[in-house]
Structures are given as C-alpha cells and as structure tokens.
C-alpha cells in the first residue's frame, strides 16, 4: 500500500499545502518516500524524495508547489527498489504533461516493460512498476486523435490501461493544464474514494486512498471509485465518472486494509474500518470461549480461561482489544506504552530495522503484568517480529501466563498486490501449525481468528461485497494470473536479503 491523493477545483488557489496535509494524514500507508506534483498554471512543480512527509517538504519546496491542482503520494516500496528515483509522482512530458501516483503492484510488469520498449518505443528510467503504468497510460492517451474531448480521451486511455495491466492499481493522475484523473483496477483491490467540497468560489474535488484525508480537509465523502472505474475532475469543478463494464459488480477489496493497513476512522467501500475491527474483537472473544472449552482450559480466577487482563498491542491492535475485553468480561488495560515518535514497524524496509524498532516503540508498565495471566491482542502476526519481542517483555515485566490473540488468521502466503510480504519462509505461520507458532513466539496459548469470521466482520459493513482478497490467508489470488513461477520470482527479487542489499546501496 501507499497513500495517493489528487485535488482540483475552481477556488483551489493552493493545492500544494492541501496535498501536504492530505499526505500527512495518509502517512501510515507509506513512510519511505513522499512527493507532490502541482500544475502551476501549466508549469509542473514537483518535489519528491525519500523520507516522511514532514521531512521531505521544506518551506522552500512548498513555495514552489504553487497552482490550484495536483497529486501526491507517500510510498511503501513493494516493487522496484527503495531509491529516491522511484519516489512518486512520476512524470512524462507527452502527451500534455502527465504525472501519476500509484498504490498497488502490477503483476505483469516484465511483459509490459517489453511491450513499452519494443512496440510503444518508450523509455523507462527506473525499475518501478508505477513508471510502467504511467507510460502505458501516456501511450494510450497519445493514440487518441487530436480534438477528442479530453475526459473521453482520458477514459479511453484508462480502458487501455485496464486492457494491458494486470494486478492491483489505484491511481491518481494529473493532466497538465487540464485536470486530474483517477482509476481503480477491475477488482478494486486497493481503496480509492472521491470527495467534494463546496466553497463560495465553487466546487472542488479530492480523490484519496482513504476517507480520513477527505475528513481532515473538510471534503464530504461522495463515493468510492468503483472497481475498474475512471474519474475525471477539472478546475471548473466538473466531475465525470466512467464506470467500467464491471462497475456494477461489487469490488473484491483487500481484507488486510481492514485488519491493519487503513486507519480505523476510514470508510472503505462502505465499510467502517473501526466497526469491522470492533467486530473482529468480538469474534475473537467467541473463539477464545470456544477454544477454552474445547481444550478444557481451567480458570483459576473465575474469568474466561483464567485471563486477568486484556491488553492491546498499540496501535493497530487497540480497537479489537477493546471489544474483545468487553465480550470476555475482563478488564482492559494499557500494558504497553507507545513512543509516538516511532512509526509503523511492519512497513519499514528491512528486517533488522523492524526488529530494533519494536523495542524502541513499545515499553511495558510492569505493575499491569506482575503475577497475571495477560491476554495480548494484536491485529495480526506476520513475520512474528512484534509478538516475539512483546511476549518476552511481558514475561520480564512479571506476567504469569501470556495468551496471545491475533484478530486476523495466520498469514501464510505472500502478497502480490502492494503489501511487502514477498517470501513465504519469512512469514512465521508459513508451514507451521498454530501450536508450533505459539512455541516459536513463546506464547503459552495462541489464538488466531478464523478466516470465515474475519470475512463476516468486514462483510457486515457492506453485505454487497461478496468476496475479499484474502490471499495472504488462503493463497487464492483473485486476479487469477498468479502461478508458482510468478511467486518464486517475487520471492527471489524481494526477499529480506535482497531488500537489505538494495537498502545498503540506496
Ligand atoms: O508480525 P510482524 O511482522 O511484527 O507484523 C505484525 C505487526 O506489525 C504491525 O504493527 P506496526 O508497528 O507496523 O503498526 P501499528 O503501530 O499500526 O500497530 C501490526 O499491527 C502488528 O503489530
Ligand atoms: N505499496 C505500493 O502501493 C507501492 C506502489 C509501487 N508498486 C511501488 O513500489 O512504489
Ligand atoms: Mg502493530
């Protein structure tokens, strides 16, 4: 995942600062690089670099990011390399001058690179799949005869992208001197929402990965961009939408957005992430009741499975822990305090950095642990970096027993749609039973959510969604183009050793 955004509108005299604010609200989606491109009366202003939003943009950059429309991106690298050359937005000067920001991963990049070089005679300067996507779009737009109304030409170019590109893509783009566009892949794997704001000067539109960005800037959530849908918005406040043939079908969104990636205060495809996480906690409590009775776990304190307290693993474990504690009828306690200046560890590149950061990020309050059976609740266990260290900390702080609960099922399969889980052997649950994972992480008892329950938690938010991308849990890749050879290629290119080497040479 990455965060993407676009803003345009009649009264929008200063898109730059607003894009900056939107990106800081989307920071949790990508901490590695950030960029903004604005249309300063037909002249492109672009600033991008590795780093957090607050570090990449200095006042002098903001002064240069003038103009009333533009796009922004914060990056979590999941394809190509972590160099600042692959920070986004990408730009090509023809036709019109185009900039593009992408969330997701293409799954046929190698073939597209060949086509772009051989048939389309286009130059690619990086290893980024997003640069490929921009060049496909640019080539398709270039094919439209002069005089075609621009929104139609952009929509036809989006048809071309859908025809040629496979995988997951939520896109915002800027057509210099004209307007902004957005596109979501035919399954709608990655999220994208449209917002609208009315001012005395007219109507403005914003398109963003998550609705929290709209909230923060005072835009009203109009709708989600539908699966396969293309959207055009211009400085005159016009919004035009072209649903794809598949748009009347519900999306197949990535369920991991609801588990971990998205902020809880976001709405995605009609689902409140917060409510979905509350339901996850309730279902997890039900699973604890079921498993405790199946395994005959005795209680020595009159509470379910003898659990004295429920504690969240900050931040993303918090919502599920809250409702789980209530359902179990057990006190909820904050046993770990988070250092607010350390970002998310899972989306950091490189395992060494992630491991160091967990300890810098979380510190226990010993009095909450001494002599107790503690139930630690996290949203998910992926590589096991967080839980292994946390359980050790809980024991050092005096916990008598550690029950570890994951609001998501075991993550056993790689992700190919824009989450950095490339190598199955790096996933702690890969090839291990729940009991073996418990032993590996040092838990006395480990409880995972069932997949059917997780899906039910998300579906309850929008029953029209029939299917989610649950590939990291069940190995079913909804785009239908992923085979063992492809997965092996991803593993080879992006395993931890390969990424550590790439980071060292960045
Ligand atoms: O098993 P692992 O490989 O450690 O991955 C899972 C952990 O990583 C994430 O936390 P993170 O620190 O990224 O973000 P958060 O503050 O939003 O919880 C997630 O919430 C889990 O705690
Ligand atoms: N996670 C993402 O959405 C990444 C976008 C793009 N594939 C990149 O690696 O830069
Ligand atoms: Mg976490």
Automatic annotation (TrEMBL):
The keyword Magnesium applies. Binds 1 Mg(2+) ion per subunit. GO terms for biological process: 'de novo' IMP biosynthetic process; purine nucleobase biosynthetic process. Pathway: Purine metabolism; IMP biosynthesis via de novo pathway; N(1)-(5-phospho-D-ribosyl)glycinamide from 5-phospho-alpha-D-ribose 1-diphosphate: step 1/2. It is an enzyme of class 2 (transferase). It catalyses: 5-phospho-beta-D-ribosylamine + L-glutamate + diphosphate = 5-phospho-alpha-D-ribose 1-diphosphate + L-glutamine + H2O. Its cofactor is Mg(2+). One of its GO terms (molecular function) is magnesium ion binding. It comes from Phycisphaera mikurensis (strain NBRC 102666 / KCTC 22515 / FYK2301M01). This is Amidophosphoribosyltransferase. In the C-terminal section; belongs to the purine/pyrimidine phosphoribosyltransferase family. Residues 2-236 form the Glutamine amidotransferase type-2 domain.
């Amino acid at each position: 995942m990455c965060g993407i955004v676009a803003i345009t509108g009649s009264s929008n005299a200063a898109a730059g600062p607003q894009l900056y604010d939107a990106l800081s609200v989307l920071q949790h989606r990508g901490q590695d690089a950030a960029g903004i491109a604005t249309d300063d009366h037909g002249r492109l202003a672009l600033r991008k670099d590795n780093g957090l939003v607050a570090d990449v943009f200095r006042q002098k950059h903001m002064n240069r990011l003038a103009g009333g429309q533009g796009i922004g991106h914060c990056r979590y690298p999941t394809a190509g390399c972590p160099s600042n050359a692959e920070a986004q937005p990408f730009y090509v000067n023809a036709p019109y001058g185009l900039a593009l920001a992408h969330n997701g991963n293409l799954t046929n990049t190698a073939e597209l690179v060949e086509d772009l070089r051989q048939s389309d005679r286009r130059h690619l300067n990086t290893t980024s799949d997003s640069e490929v996507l921009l060049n496909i779009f640019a080539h398709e737009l270039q094919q439209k005869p002069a005089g075609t109304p621009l929104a139609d030409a952009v929509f036809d170019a989006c048809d071309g992208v859908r025809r040629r590109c496979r995988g997951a893509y939520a896109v915002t783009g800027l057509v210099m001197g004209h307007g902004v566009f957005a596109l979501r892949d035919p399954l709608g794997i990655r999220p994208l929402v449209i917002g609208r704001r009315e001012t005395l000067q007219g109507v403005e539109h914003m398109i963003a990965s998550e609705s929290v960005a709209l909230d923060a800037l005072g835009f009203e959530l109009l709708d989600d961009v539908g699966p396969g849908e293309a959207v055009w918005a211009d400085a005159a406040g016009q919004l035009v939408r072209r649903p794809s043939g598949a748009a009347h079908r519900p999306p197949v969104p990535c369920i991991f957005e609801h588990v971990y990636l998205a902020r809880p205060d976001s709405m995605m495809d009609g689902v409140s992430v917060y409510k979905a996480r509350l339901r996850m906690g309730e279902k997890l409590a039900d699973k604890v009741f079921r498993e405790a009775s199946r395994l005959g776990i005795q209680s020595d304190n009159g509470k379910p499975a003898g659990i004295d307290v429920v504690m969240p693993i900050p931040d993303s474990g918090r919502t599920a822990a809250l409702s789980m504690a209530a359902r179990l009828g057990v006190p909820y306690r904050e046993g770990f305090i988070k250092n607010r200046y350390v970002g998310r560890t899972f989306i950091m590149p490189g395992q060494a950095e992630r491991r160091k950061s967990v300890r810098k990020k979380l510190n226990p309050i010993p009095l909450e642990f001494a002599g107790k059976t503690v139930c630690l609740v996290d949203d998910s266990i992926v590589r096991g970096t967080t839980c292994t260290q946390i359980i050790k900390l809980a024991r050092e702080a005096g916990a008598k027993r550690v029950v570890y609960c994951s609001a998501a099922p075991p993550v056993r399969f790689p992700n190919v749609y824009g989450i950095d889980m490339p190598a199955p052997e790096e996933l702690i649950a890969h090839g291990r039973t729940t009991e073996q994972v418990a032993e590996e992480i040092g838990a006395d008892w480990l409880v995972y959510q069932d997949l059917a329950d997780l899906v039910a938690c998300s579906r309850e938010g929008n029953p029209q969604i029939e299917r989610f991308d649950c590939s990291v849990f069940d190995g079913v890749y909804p785009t239908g183009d992923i085979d063992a050879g492809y997965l092996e290629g991803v593993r080879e290119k992006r395993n931890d050793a390969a990424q550590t080497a790439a980071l060292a040479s960045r």
